[in-house]
Structure formats: C-alpha cells, structure tokens
Write a structure and sequence with these properties.
It is a single chain. Helix content is 33%, strand content 20%. An eight-stranded antiparallel β-sheet has the order 7-8-9-10-17-14-13-12. A five-stranded antiparallel β-sheet has the order 6-5-11-16-15, with no helix packed on it. α4 packs parallel to α7.
Length: 617
C-alpha cells in the first residue's frame, strides 16, 4: 500500500512483524512492528480486499475459530500523505470480557540498512502519551524522526504494546504520523482522496474484453499510487518496496509511456530532473555537467556519506531519454514556454552526450564501469554479470562500453532536439541535430548489425569488438527508431524464431546462451517493460500482428495474477499450461509495469499485416 511518500510493507495479511516489513516514509522505516492480537493470539483473517491502493478492508475472527466465532473483527487500514488511519470494529458473540493488544515498535532503520548494507545501533526513545505512544530518534544526520500513535479510545502502553480491556462490541481508531524535526500532525481527508481516484484515475477507454479492462484499471490505479510530491512537481516512484525515490531512467521511461495520457506527470519528471541536473565533476557520484541523475536518496545512511546517492549519476542512458522526452512532451502539448525554460538544461544534456559520454570520440554513447562502490553496468540491465561476449568473457572494465539501446536513445534524442529547435525558430541548430541523428544511424548500422543472426549485437567494448549475444536489447531498440525499416523486420523474426521468445515475453538472454538462467535478474528472465517497448517499436514499424502477439502475452500474464498486476520481472521458463513463474525479489507494483496496459492498450484492438505479408511486399 502506498500514498505519496508513505508506504506499508507487510506480510500476506499486512502485518508488520519481521524482516523488511514496515511503515516507511521515503528511505526511513517509521514502524518496524505493528500487529493486532485478541486475547493474546493473532487475528485469523477470513477475507481481505484492497478497495484502493491506499485502502485495505479485512474481516477476521478470533484465532481458535473452530465452528463458532467468539469475536469478529472488521478492519479498515488507510494511508494518506499525512499519515495512517487504522479502524478496528470488534463484534462480540460471547458474554465475556476480552483483551485487545496492538504490538508496535519503531527502529527508524534506513532503507539501505534494512536491505543488509550494514548499520549501527540506534537509541530510540518510547514514551506514553495521553492516548497512545510516541517513538523518537535523533539521527546521526542531525534530523530527529518521530512516530506518533494516537488512539481513540485511549490505550495503555506497557512498553511493548497498546492495550484495551473490552466487553461487548468495541471500535478502536488508530492514527499514525511519521514526522521529521518540527513537523506536526496534519488532518487526513480520505473522502477527498477517494474522490480523486474515482474522478481522475479511471481508464479513459473501455477495452473489448472485460478481463483486459481489469488489467488496465489496476495499472492506472497503481500508476497514481506510485506518484509522490516534490518541490518540482509530481514524480513517479520506480517501485514498491525499495524504489520510492527519484530515478532518472525509470521515471523517464514511465514518462514516455504515459505522456499522451498524463503530460502533467512528464512535466513534473522533466522539471525535477532538470533541477537536479549535474553541475560539476564528482568522481564518487559520477556527476558531470549536463548529466541526468540515476537515483537520489534522502535517508540517514546517505546523508551521513555511506552511499553516493545524494544524488548518484551512474547512468549513461537517462540523459538522452531526458532530451527525447522533452521532444515528446512538446509534440503532445505544444507547450513551447516550458520547453524554452528547459532549453539551458536540454543544451547541457546534448553537450554531455557529445563530449563526456563519448570518451573515445567515435560518436557512440559509452560508459566506463564504476569501480567498487558504484554501478558496474550503467544501463537498464545494471546487474554486474549482464554484459559479456558470446564465450562468457567480460569486456575490459577500464575502457568505454557502448550498449545497443543507448545508441537508439541518443538517435531519438537528436531527432527530438531537431524538433525542439525547429519549434523554437532556430532552424540552423535543428539541421545540426538532424545531421547528427543521420550520422549516428549510419555508424550504428555499420558497427552494431550482426548479419549472421539477422539481429544486432549487445554492445561494443573499448576496442570496438562486438558482443555477439542474443539479448532482448536489440528488440527494445526498435522503440527508438534507429533501426532501418528493412532490418526491423529481421529483428522481429529473430525474436520469435529463437530462444528469446518465452511465450510470456522476450527473454533478456536467449535460452541456450552462455550464462542463460531463467531465474536470473538479467540473463534469461522476462522484464515486461522491456518486452512492451519492443512491442511499441514493432507497432511503429508497421509490424502490427507481432506487436499484438507480444501485447496479448503481457495482458495474459497480468490476468494470471490475482491482483491483475504485472510484476517487475518473472522467470524465463517457456509458457505452458500454467502461470508465469515469479521472480522472488521482484517489485510489485513497479512503475514501468504499472503503465504497460496504458501504453499498449491501443494494440490490443488491432493486429494488421504479418511479417510474411510485409516481406512479400
């Protein structure tokens, strides 16, 4: 569950009691334990339902239910940007008193430390208040954090739990506020929040299949739930639980997939990233003038210098994606005034692409793996083992690496720059970027095309040796438009006639390849957003039936999930008469994947020409 900066991570019954579960505000856990008990035993959940991404309804009973319920419980748990409200209605079916107990604790751990990056002992003060309890922690970063829990009726705090003694029917309402320094508790208007979802966050189209409509509905609602407020505007989180933070690449791809439906979100993304654009050279954070950030964190662990995420700029692809989205936003809205305001940042980004991002001057965007403490592979497949040659050997980490889809992003960025300058009346600069795009496309075809496979290589090492590995990246690159039309047909054919296609999506690495593992992060798994971008690319090239086949597979995968969601990734096993095999650590929901139904909905209603028909033509 999530609303604005707050998100609730619990077990399958939404209890906070162990491991990574908790109530978080951005990068800090404000509750590390939260669980109800009746007469010393946990609630026995009979039904639970998420009415909204911020609102949970549960019906429970006493733990030893048998054939006769003694105590029935109806519970509503709701998140608001200002806090949490938890309402418990207990119905007693016995003539006896009973005890209600709420075990709560707050450890104020930083998200990185919850995930195992090391930590320190914290001195947390807990004090009873008139109605509940307050936890307080003075951080090493100079920030004091509070968790205030108030109860109606008032509870008795015993050092471990809030307690009520009751007889007959009882209603208890809990309010929780996660506060920094001098902040005070604010009102929570849930009626207004429900109204916002009902009026503004419903699908704008109705699909032919009502089950597909459920997938679209869930995606739109999840997209709204992932948004949070910043000083620059509304910004989408990359995913729950660990990525409720500004990310460059993730947010920009989300913006690309939603700009036609929600341009105001893209505007917030562009404004925030421009406001945090690189200004100086920093070897630790990889900041460079004009560069767009990869990830920003604001928790205690980062603020005390234990991570470089303040922000961290270890990505080669966010900057071209930024320029490209500026063009897409202008094309969609015609908002020249906003783009004119961003022009200094756009020009700085374009300068970075042509200089710092091209250390050997060959015209390709490249990165040099960051040594210990940073990201090795600074592209969307950012795991340390995702870039290699066909024999499994890895490129020299001290030389520049050029990855296939990044060149496509650069091509699209140069075309966007041409459009922007033309719209602003600077035809000379427009021609400069038109020529740059053309030259890059020619070089790309010369160095990245892999004729033996009718495909494109994964990348080039510092000596321009191609990595002839069948990966999803070339199919993903169709989305950018850099691949000439006649070769786009070959790419699509290779996707479906090789070990890349699983039936649920495009494997990140073809089955049978060196390093292939269906339950790996980037070497055989299926990432729905990666597959979806390939579908969008095929659609743009006129490969309608192939785009439809991919889109149908993704919607089918979502329909296999009880909550109708696509997760961040799933295992690359071949599709059989069973659901996709889940990946254990996948985000759920995840920003890219929440917007897939929105981005692909138009493809469901069409199929168009087949590959064979286009080839005959």
């Amino acid at each position: 569950m999530k609303e604005n900066e707050l998100y609730w991570v619990g077990d399958d019954e939404f209890r906070i009691q162990s491991g990574e579960s908790g109530l978080y505000r951005r990068d800090t856990r404000f509750l590390s334990e939260y669980r109800w008990e009746l007469d010393g035993a946990p609630l026995n959940t009979l039904m639970q339902h998420l009415a909204y991404p911020f609102e949970l309804h549960q019906v429970s009973s006493n733990d030893d239910l048998g054939y006769l319920m003694k105590l029935g419980v109806e519970r509503t748990l709701m998140l608001h940007k200002n806090g949490v409200q938890d309402t418990l209605n207990v119905q007693s079916y016995q003539d006896a008193s009973y005890q209600i107990r709420l075990k709560v604790n707050a450890d104020f751990s930083d998200m990185f430390q919850v995930r195992g990056y090391g930590g320190w002992e914290r001195s947390v003060q807990a004090e009873a208040t008139q109605t509940g309890v307050r936890f307080r922690y003075a951080g090493q970063d100079g920030v004091t954090r509070h968790t205030e829990i108030s109860c109606d009726p008032a509870a008795v705090w015993d050092g471990e739990a809030l307690n009520w003694q009751a007889r007959g029917n009882t209603e208890i309402q809990i309010q929780i506020h996660a506060l920094l320094d001098g902040e005070s508790a604010q009102e929570m208007d849930f009626a207004a929040l429900r109204s916002e979802y009902d009026q503004h966050w419903q699908p704008k189209v109705t699909l032919q299949n009502e089950k597909d409509q459920e997938v679209l509905f869930r995606g739109v609602q999840d997209f709204r739930s992932l948004l949070f407020e910043t000083r620059s505007g509304i910004f989408p989180a990359a995913g729950i639980p660990w990525f409720v933070a500004p990310f460059g690449r993730d947010s920009l791809i989300i913006g690309h997939m939603t700009v036609r439906d929600y341009p105001e979100i893209s505007k917030g993304i562009l404004k925030y990233l421009a406001d945090h654009q690189g200004q100086k050279l920093d070897a630790e954070t990889l900041e460079e003038p004009g560069k767009i950030l990869h990830e920003e964190r604001i928790g205690e662990f980062t603020r005390t210098g234990n991570t470089p995420h303040r922000p961290y700029y270890g990505t080669v692809d966010a900057t071209p994606l930024f320029v490209w989205l500026c063009g897409e936003y202008l094309k969609t809205t015609g908002d020249q005034a906003f783009i004119a305001d961003l022009l200094p940042g756009i020009e700085a980004a374009l300068h970075w692409m042509q200089h710092d991002a091209d250390p050997d001057g060959d015209g390709f965007l490249e990165y040099i793996p960051h040594p210990v403490g940073g990201i090795k592979n600074q592209v969307w497949k950012d795991s340390g083992d995702s870039v290699f040659f066909e024999d499994g050997e890895e490129p020299d980490p001290e030389k520049p690496i050029a990855i296939v889809e990044v060149q496509g992003y650069a091509y699209a960025a140069y075309r966007a720059a041409e459009q922007i300058y033309a719209a602003l009346g600077n035809t000379a600069q427009a021609q400069v970027y038109r020529a740059l795009a053309h030259d890059l496309q020619q070089k790309f075809q010369q160095h990245f095309y892999w004729p033996e496979a009718n495909y494109y290589v994964h990348g080039l090492d510092g000596d321009k040796k191609p990595m002839k590995v069948l990966v999803s990246n070339a199919a993903h690159t169709l989305w950018t438009g850099i691949i000439p039309e006649q070769y786009a047909i070959e790419v699509a054919r290779t996707v479906f006639n090789s070990g890349l296609w699983s039936g649920w999506g495009i494997r990140t690495l073809a089955e049978g390849s060196v390093r292939y593992n269906p339950v790996s992060y980037h070497n055989g798994s299926v990432w729905p957003h990666d597959t979806a971008l390939a579908a969008l690319g095929m659609w743009n090239y006129g490969l309608k039936q192939e785009a439809h086949q991919i889109t149908r597979a993704l919607f089918d995968a979502a329909l296999q999930a009880q909550d109708r969601r696509l997760s961040e990734l799933f295992a690359g096993y071949t599709r059989k008469n069973a659901p996709p095999v889940p990946f254990p650590a996948a985000c759920h929901p995840q920003g890219w994947d929440a917007v897939i139904p929105l981005a692909l909905r138009h493809i469901l209603e069409h199929s168009g020409r087949t590959l064979e028909e286009i080839t005959r033509v």
